[in-house]
Amino acid sequence: MAGNIPQPFIDDLLQRVDIVELIQGRVPLKKAGHEYQACCPFHTEKTPSFTVSPKKQFYHCFGCGAHGSAIGFLMAYDRFSFPEAIEELATQQGLTIPRDAQFETGPDRQPLYDLLTRVAAHYAQQLRAHPAASHAIDYLKQRGLTGAIAARYQLGFAPPGRDHLMREFGSAYKDLLHEAGLINQTDGRTYDRLRDRIVFPIRDGRGRVIGFGGRLIGAGKPKYLNSPETPVFHKGQQVYGLYEVRQTHRQPDHLVVVEGYLDVIALAQHGIDHAVATLGTATTSQHLHKLYRTSPRITFCFDGDRAGREAAWKALQTSLPLMQSGRQARFLFLPDGEDPDSLVRTQGAAGWEAQLAQAQPLSTCLFNHLEADLDMRNLDDRAQLAERARPLLSQLPTGTYRTMLQQALEQRVGVKTQIPVLRPERTQRPVRRRHRVSTQTMPPMRKAVALVLQHPQAAQHTLPDDWEQLRIAGVDTLQQLITQARQNPNITSAQLVEQTEDPVLRDYLARLAVAELAVEDDAAAQLQGILRQLLETEHRQAHADLLQIPPGQMTATQKAALRALYGQ
């Protein structure tokens, strides 16, 4: 499963990650004894059967059978590939995946990342040294930006001229420059995409440069120009400034979504370092998944004009299916003629915070929009409101927030209102009846494996002599698990499962890791007892088999074995 990623790196990653914290950011959990519970995010249910164990670092649903580690949860819930799940967890923990770890599928994009990094450094150097950059520097100073903030966001300058990059990097890089979206070709002629512009490098969650935005200085169109779609840059998925936010706040409690690069940077200049921006596109569900994985509270900031309100309405509609319990979305409409950049420069951080405090909750924004052209004193208009609201509220996940919005609608229209329940998009797993493995029927070796999986510390105790010589299915697996547990006394159930290469065996161990065992503090004693029982059973069977052989037909080896059984 790990491909060529070193297993010790995966072990270290799982050791650092708290699966409860990871899942809590996506699914509201409630404490239930030593574990946490929720309604399963992978199938529709009313009674919680989804459990998360902080001790095992494992999740399991007794309804649909979903189970796994933090890696498996990201793959199932966020639909990440295995490499993407590893990258996401590594980014959260501030780790870098070893450079020699190449995933087994897909082309190698490292040369493209390396080139983009070099180009970003070159543009930054041009901002300091190119004669034509003086007007760009003057512009940035007029916006109140310092050299320190420019360095933090790695601002640069793309010089005028059609072939600057080709002259700088040479024809050997022509194909990569084209793949990166940095040069275009028309009628057989090659020219730079960004020319005479302030350059804003766009970084992914790991801090790698994946694209650029450019702002034209002076007259001309377009004022802003972004990199095109490339193998490493997708506008509908990337958020500008999120990497920088995470460098300051590992888990920010609030994010503000603004419209432009300079809005993000101007706010950061004034100490407001939790702002991000979409890249010239409407807010997408991929944007929101990324943002809500970072913080449960988001405020969207828009101009107060018609275009701003239309953009806010689109963002609101996109947010509805993601509004799980614990998440918030608010909408701030700025005064006419103001944007975050201008407002914070004239009113400072205090003025910005005062504006932010006036942001409307999603519920207020929703009903204000739906009621804008209705007279709520009119019976027909109240009925119209109900018809408009039903399909929108049906997109909300089941839970307290949906129930409260339904009650708010009913108060407005004056009658009970039925909201259709949409089947969750993720509901693809067949729902099975709850099945808790009983220790009464579990074969002894299987129970021994389950004990070590669930209580790895039991492997640290002394075990009966010669248990490794048992001739029973599963002893090799038990031996492997005990060896791994002894090598790492702090190992978790999740790590033991993830270290298993064979996918069939890994799934089998995952199910045993969540089997219901009546074990608390006596796991080591139970493991010792099971192995002694198996040794005694095998001893008796060997004795019985030898006694079935007529004495005259016994070999010397069999006679020696019989004497050993009698202790002679």
Structural overview:
The chain folds into 5 domains: 7-93, DNA Primase, Chain A (Alpha-Beta Complex), CATH 3.90.580; 110-226, DNA primase, catalytic core, N-terminal domain (DNA primase DNAg catalytic core, N-terminal domain); 239-360, 3-Layer(aba) Sandwich (Dna Topoisomerase Vi A Subunit, Chain: A, domain 2), CATH 3.40.1360.10; 373-435, Pheromone ER-1, CATH 1.20.50; 444-565, Orthogonal Bundle (DNAb Helicase, Chain A). 45% of the residues lie in helices and 13% in strands. It has 23 helices and 17 strands. The chain has helices at 7-16, 19-24, 70-77, 82-93, 110-129, 134-142, 147-152, 164-169, 174-179, 242-248, 261-269, 285-294, 306-319, 340-356, 362-371, 379-393, 400-413, 444-454, 475-487, 493-498, 503-513, 523-547, 556-565; strands at 30-32, 35-38, 50-53, 58-61, 67-68, 156-158, 183-186, 189-192, 197-203, 209-216, 224-226, 239-240, 255-258, 275-278, 297-303, 328-334, 360-361. It is flat.
